UniProtKB/TrEMBL annotation:
InterPro entries: Aminotrans_V_dom (IPR000192), Aminotrans_V_PyrdxlP_BS (IPR020578), PyrdxlP-dep_Trfase (IPR015424), PyrdxlP-dep_Trfase_major (IPR015421), PyrdxlP-dep_Trfase_small (IPR015422), SP_NH2Trfase/AEP_transaminase (IPR024169). Belongs to the class-V pyridoxal-phosphate-dependent aminotransferase family. The modification N6-(pyridoxal phosphate)lysine is found at residue 198. One of its GO terms (molecular function) is oxidoreductase activity. Pfam families: Aminotran_5. Its cofactor is pyridoxal 5'-phosphate. Residues 61-282 form the Aminotransferase class V domain. It comes from the Bacteria. The keyword Oxidoreductase applies. Substrate binds at residue 353. This is Soluble hydrogenase 42 kDa subunit. GO terms for biological process: glycine biosynthetic process, by transamination of glyoxylate. Keywords: Oxidoreductase, Pyridoxal phosphate. It comes from Planktotalea frisia.
């Protein structure tokens, strides 16, 4: 017998749960892309995106996923043979660096492991050693979704300033935007990339690159930029099609409009606090389970954990067994471990992740945690007592 029949719950760290209001907004006939509602609606989306990113500056929209956002940002400011510094706390940091390598850049990885955040002092020391200012940009992932480590982006700006280094500070907020507090302008971020399918609660397909005037000047000094990735016409379109370098992503824009309305109706501070509070419940449960069983949180210190995703170690094959059980027996899909071991390594089955980004509330989180505990019972996986009580308490 399966108890999975009912509304399924995708609790992986992206794509995230899409609100019914977003789906309804997308369920419509194709709009005219030359005049009328779509054109006006798109103009209104820009300031509301800026409010989510906490920036007064520019935004370019691309049809693409997070990888597209990575390449779009790099293509505007990084030329072949430029040196970029990539501090790494997981798979996604490495991935952005690989994207830069693919564009011909020289990539220097500064590895901080898979359990603790980037150390700004070490980054500052590396920047100080770069007397000739060869490093053109620092690629910093705010929340690395593979490890669920949250990095202190503002401390990287402080490191750049202390070293008197002109490199661009580029931040990947694909997992964190609309979940963890992020303040582009106040934190001195020059370029920020994100995508539609995580905290922004829309289906995959839209990528965003935010950039300030300093980054715009670096772009202007480039001898050549790919015509498609060029952010200049997208951020300052003379004609509607220039926003998107061609046909507009019509239905995604309607979905995004609805999602931005939901975010701003709730308020950025409230959105962040909801994610933080729900994360506290998840951590409380996981910590209690770990007292009497094999489960551990990947990141030991609470201050270094993302509020959008939690990476867990359960041991192989229990991690995979639990994911299978919750999906097939209970309708809850948990995330696989990513980048925690070599792909061919069976120990990879010991990792899993809970996605808690975007359209997630208290009963979803409590139901998800109770479902996990039912899975421990069914699979005979040992666990500590009081986890659900602790989660409930964290929300009260
Ligand atoms: C999801 C994610 C990406 C990649 O996004 P895709 O849409 O899968 O291309 C990159 N960086 C971070 C931090 C992410 O969470």
């Amino acid at each position: 017998m399966s108890l999975a029949h009912g509304r399924p719950y995708l609790a992986i760290p992206g794509p995230s749960v899409v609100p019914d209001a977003v789906l309804r907004a997308m369920h419509r006939a194709s709009p005219n892309i030359y005049e009328g509602e779509l054109i006006e609606m798109t103009a209104g989306i820009i300031p509301d995106l800026r409010r989510v990113a906490r920036t007064e500056h520019h935004v370019a929209i691309y049809m693409g996923n997070g990888h597209a956002a990575w390449e779009a940002a790099l293509s505007n400011v990084i030329a072949p043979d430029d040196l970029v510094l990539v501090p790494s706390t997981g798979r996604f940091c490495v991935g952005w660096g690989e994207m830069a390598t693919g564009l011909g850049a020289e990539v220097e990885l500064l590895d901080f492991g898979m359990k603790t955040p980037m150390d700004a002092d070490q980054i500052e020391a590396r920047l100080r050693a770069d007397k000739e200012h060869k490093i053109k940009a620092v690629l910093a992932v705010h929340v690395d979704t593979s490890t669920s480590i949250k990095n202190d982006v503002a401390s990287l700006r402080a490191a750049l300033d202390a070293a008197g280094h002109p490199a661009l500070l580029m931040a990947d907020c694909i997992a964190s935007l609309g979940c963890d507090r992020f303040e582009m302008d106040a934190w001195g971020v020059d370029i920020m990339v994100t995508a539609s399918q995580k905290g922004l609660m829309v289906t995959p397909g839209l990528a965003f690159v935010f950039f300030n005037d300093k980054a715009a000047a670096v772009r202007d000094a480039m001898s050549r930029v790919s015509r498609y990735w060029n952010w200049v016409p997208r951020a300052n379109p003379a004609h509607f099609f220039e926003y998107f370098g061609g046909t507009a992503p019509t239905h995604l824009l309607y979905g995004l409009r609805a999602a931005l309305d939901m975010i701003h109706d709730e308020g950025m501070e409230a959105v962040w606090l909801r994610h933080e509070t729900l994360a506290l419940a998840i951590w409380a449960a996981c910590e209690a389970w770990g007292q009497g069983g094999p489960l551990t949180l990947n990141v030991a210190e609470r201050a270094h954990r993302s509020h959008a995703v939690t990476a867990l170690r359960l041991g192989a094959p229990a991690g995979k067994d639990l994911r299978r059980w919750t999906e097939h027996q209970a309708g809850l899909t948990l995330g696989i471990g990513l980048g925690m071991s070599e792909e061919s390594d069976p120990l990879g089955d010991g990792f899993l992740r809970i996605g808690h980004m975007g359209h997630v509330n208290a009963h979803m989180v409590l139901g998800g945690l109770a479902t996990m505990q039912a899975g421990f019972e069914a699979l005979d996986i040992a666990y500590g007592a009081g986890a659900l009580d602790a989660a409930a308490k964290a929300l009260s």
